[in-house]
């Protein structure tokens, strides 16, 4: 799936500016928390980023890091008790605090979301064609025939063979991969400027995943839409996006051009994610978790949230949350105080193995000595 990656402009990540004028989406200091019986859960903290038309951004992190909540905040899909602060400019309009009615309009044809489970957005009692047509006429004043034509064209564009026949079928008559394509068709039929795909391929087998990713890429290239691709899988991010944004405990801990982040990660957490991709792994291989668990999001302790799991942690890391600073130039940023010392975990793993082998050799030598000594005694 080779394709020319877009150049990433330096200004795209000038997060000190209130908003980047030519960004399609400009998020500043997004904070999201949920009042619960146990206390306030702070799911997203101080998230700022920009996304331009035609750009593909990969948001990556372990489960619970705030990826979906960030996306739902942009879509205006969080419960009404949710506390949301910050600013999200989309196509020149502020989304935070926007009246429901206007938000619904934007959800229809400005921003579209593709979810992990297609059955959450496909209605089992209507044919796929009928649902797609309804989504289209809700935002376009067109005849039935024109809507039908658009449905067939869209099914074809997402790689569904025999679109005419397929349009007359019900979701349960589709295979998993085809259902996912139908859902992508639903998301793109109104030609959204931004497509948010939240782990859209996780439940599919590797070959189908690759096909779906390719379909999304082709759609993006044809329409110049921006894509926000959410996944726990760095392999997927490397395959389909231009820029990677790594989240941990609700905040961005590293961001930069995807290949630079993979080659020279500047945050131990990212290095851990990379180190846990098996070398022979294909797209969609599950990560081996980094030892330890993410922190509680109620009363988040001061300091670096990754410190309890970090092999490089030291006293100063617990003092205050490190800022997101420029590393390797202004478009690659990290929240690690000691980013210059970060090595890829596979190098660290090799060191640990060497050390372990040395210790084992010492133990074997000691055992041999003890054995020889006991033989001496017997003699
Ligand atoms: N409605 C809610 N009420 C309380 N906590 C929530 C709610 N929705 C999400 N969370 C919590 O917010 C955190 C981030 O969740 P999420 O964004 O779904 O993570 P992920 O990165 O896996 O998509 C998790 O700890 C989750 O339990
Ligand atoms: S700031 Fe300290 S604890 Fe946090 S990632 Fe860097 S070295 Fe580890
Ligand atoms: Mg999620």
TrEMBL record:
InterPro entries: AAA+_ATPase, ABC_Ni/Peptide_Import, ABC_transporter-like_ATP-bd, ABC_transporter-like_CS, Oligopep_ABC_C, P-loop_NTPase. GO terms for biological process: peptide transport. Keywords: ATP-binding, Cell membrane, Membrane, Nucleotide-binding, Transport. Residues 365-379 have a biased composition (Basic and acidic residues). One of its GO terms (cellular component) is plasma membrane. It is a peripheral membrane protein. It is found in: Cell membrane. Residues 360-379 are annotated as: Disordered. Residues 27-274 form the ABC transporter domain. PROSITE patterns: ABC_TRANSPORTER_1 (PS00211), ABC_TRANSPORTER_2 (PS50893). It comes from the Bacteria. One of its GO terms (molecular function) is ATP binding. Its main location: membrane. Belongs to the ABC transporter superfamily. This is ATP-binding cassette domain-containing protein. It comes from Epidermidibacterium keratini.
């Amino acid at each position: 799936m080779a394709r020319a990656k877009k150049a990433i402009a330096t200004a795209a990540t000038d997060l000190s500016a209130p908003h980047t004028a030519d960004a399609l989406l400009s998020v500043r200091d997004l904070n999201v928390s949920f009042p619960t019986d146990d206390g306030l859960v702070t799911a997203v903290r101080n998230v700022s980023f920009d996304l331009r038309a035609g750009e593909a951004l990969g948001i990556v992190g372990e489960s619970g890091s705030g990826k979906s909540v960030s996306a739902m905040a942009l879509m205006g899909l969080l419960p009404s008790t949710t506390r949301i602060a910050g600013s999200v400019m989309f196509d020149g309009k502020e989304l935070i605090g926007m009246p429901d009615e206007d938000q619904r309009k934007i959800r229809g044809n400005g921003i579209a979301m593709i979810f992990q489970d297609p059955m959450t957005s496909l209605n089992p009692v209507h044919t796929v064609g009928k649902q797609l047509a309804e989504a289209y006429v809700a935002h376009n004043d067109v005849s039935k025939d024109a809507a039908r034509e658009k449905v067939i064209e869209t099914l074809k564009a997402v790689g569904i063979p025999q679109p005419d026949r397929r349009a007359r079928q019900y979701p349960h008559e589709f295979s998993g991969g085809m259902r996912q394509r139908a859902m992508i068709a639903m998301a793109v039929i109104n030609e959204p400027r931004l497509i948010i795909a939240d782990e859209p391929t996780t439940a599919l087998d590797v070959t189908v995943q690759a096909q779906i990713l390719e379909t999304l890429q082709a759609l993006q290239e044809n329409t110049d839409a921006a894509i926000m691709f959410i996944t726990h899988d760095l392999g997927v991010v490397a395959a389909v996006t231009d820029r990677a944004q790594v989240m941990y405990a609700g905040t961005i801990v590293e961001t930069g051009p995807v290949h630079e982040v993979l080659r020279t990660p500047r945050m131990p957490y990212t290095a851990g994610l990379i180190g846990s991709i098996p070398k022979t792994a294909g797209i969609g291989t599950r990560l081996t978790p980094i030892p330890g668990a993410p922190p509680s999001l109620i009363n988040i302790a001061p300091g670096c949230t990754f410190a309890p799991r970090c092999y490089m942690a030291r006293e100063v890391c617990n003092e205050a949350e490190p800022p997101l600073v420029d590393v390797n130039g202004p478009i690659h940023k990290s929240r690690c105080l000691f980013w210059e010392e970060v090595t890829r975990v596979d190098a660290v793993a090799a060191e640990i193995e060497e050390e372990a082998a040395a210790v084992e050799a010492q133990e074997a030598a000691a055992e041999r000595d003890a054995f020889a000594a006991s033989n001496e005694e017997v003699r």
